[in-house]
Write a structure and sequence with these properties.
The protein is mainly alpha-helical. Helix content is 41%, strand content 6%.
């Protein structure tokens, strides 16, 4: 099964296998309607029974990972032939406690990241912000027609490259994006289009290649987002100062904002995912580069003030910014056509 559905440990670490369980869900109604199964696994015989068997096996695995005793299966369960007749007690075993990087180690790591971090040249972002200002009135009005709060994407001096485009989030949206399921009423909240991490890279691709993103980036480098752009497991409250604690406006506009992305060597990408210190210094550097002509964050959040001068972004050696404006007209025409297509179509 792992050959087709992926490693179980990774599924558990990602979402406790909820997305996998959702794909394996096949109801009696699905059976009556002859609905295609949502998973790629080959099942000899009845799809309902086979899918239920696999789903129960995954649930038992999740209970095992959580340190719980496996749940007994009733006689009426469609997988009765595979039921567990008694509870199995397993000794609880914890992982060893390994040493973690110290603050000095993290400091050295930031120094290494800073030298290799690739930010776009400010002139590129400035052209984008100016083009957003030209399209401000029309795009905001059309977002409202699609029942989308325009402030999510187009705040004052917003650097959002594709207003209305956001990353899919959660098992249901991922399944919908991959055309495995339908969402109730066919609506995705606050989005013209869902994406699988391509749209943030289109601007970069046009800058260096004069073409849309081709599903592969610069060799040995990977893109990192600096501030969270999804609701799921969002770290905004921990890592930023909330200007208005009651302002729950989503921050989806950060998804395609070039001020919120940086290319780092693939071998160093994980620290920016898991270290708030690394992320904070990178976003402070981004604000230094672009803050004079745009607002890199929506108005409901702002960067926390430094409590230690040691960790100030200016203490690190940064590489030069990258890219030129020569291909920007091609990009602006590309995004204009995309936006026209999205805004003419009915909501998702």
């Amino acid at each position: 099964m792992e050959d087709q559905m992926g490693d179980l440990d990774q599924h558990y670490n990602s979402d406790e296998c909820n997305g996998l369980i959702e794909k394996l869900t096949y109801t009696k109604k699905d059976q009556r309607n002859n609905t295609p199964k949502r998973h790629p696994l080959k099942i000899d015989g009845d799809i309902y029974t086979g899918s239920a068997t696999l789903k129960q096996a995954i649930k038992l695995y999740v209970e095992f990972r959580k340190g719980k005793e496996p749940t007994q299966v009733s006689e009426n369960n469609p997988i009765a032939s595979n039921r567990i007749s008694h509870k199995v007690k397993r000794p609880k075993q914890d992982w060893p406690e390994w040493s973690r990087p110290s603050n000095d180690d993290l400091y050295d790591l930031v120094k290494l990241n800073a030298r290799f971090a690739k930010f776009l040249h400010p002139d590129i972002v400035k052209v984008l912000v100016e083009d957003n200002n030209k399209n401000w009135t029309v795009w905001r009005a059309n977002l409202r027609l699609h029942n989308i709060n325009p402030n999510i994407y187009l705040w004052h001096k917003s650097p959002c490259a594709f207003p209305g485009i956001r990353r899919h989030s959660g098992g249901k949206e991922i399944a919908y994006f991959r055309k495995h399921t339908e969402i109730e009423d066919g609506l995705v909240p606050d989005a013209l289009q869902l994406d699988d991490n391509d749209y943030p890279k289109h601007l970069w691709s046009f800058v260096f290649r004069g073409k849309p993103f081709p599903k592969h980036g610069p060799r040995g480098y990977a893109m990192a987002h600096l501030a969270d752009h999804k609701d799921y497991k969002n770290r905004m409250y921990q890592e930023f100062e909330m200007v208005d604690i009651e302002d729950n406006t989503p921050i989806y506009g950060l998804y395609t904002a070039p001020t919120n992305t940086v290319f780092l060597p693939a071998s160093l990408i994980r620290p920016s995912d898991f270290s708030p210190i690394v992320r904070k210094i990178l976003i402070e550097k981004a604000n230094d580069l672009y803050g004079d002509f745009c607002n890199i964050l929506p108005p409901n959040i702002k960067i926390k003030e430094d409590t230690s001068s040691k960790w100030h972004y200016s203490n690190f050696e940064w590489g030069n910014t990258v890219g030129e404006v020569k291909n920007l007209e091609l990009f602006l025409e590309f995004r204009r056509k995309k936006m026209m297509t999205f805004l003419k179509n009915p909501p998702l």
